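explain this.
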Amino acid sequence: MVTRYYRELLNFLSRAVNNREAAADLAQESYARVLAMQQDGVTIAEPRALLYRTARNLVIDQHRRDTVRGVGADHDCYDVHASDGDANFTALDTLAAPAALEPETAAMSAQGVAAMLAVIGELPLRCREAFILHKFDGLSQAAVAQQMGISVTMVERHIKHAMQACRRCAESPPHE
């Protein structure tokens, strides 16, 4: 996890605080907190999202401490380029990790993928086979027909049926 996301997180934090050394400290602290959670037995489904959330929270916490201490922007190593008050936190929100990396979004996405895989798994065997060969393996409909020993028209029907099932899954509201 450390080597996989470190440079990306460091670049994100460097843009957020406008100071490479402070960003390195924040990245290290973010990793330390996430690793401590793992050592405590917490299962982390999306470590990248958690790292970004942790780092963002550390930036906000540091900025709040600096504001309380009265550290000016000219002395502040965590310069978020915003005026006083709520605008500081609005600026930090614009520097947040992409929405896809937020834990809530990642969890919803994982649930959506699981639901879609369940729908595909429930398709009739030949329909599922044609769909997977075409959509996941990238075979043309003619190649699928040849491999399965059926007509191209039958492959088209299988794929259409599978696509309709997937579309219904994507359009249905999430279950809580």
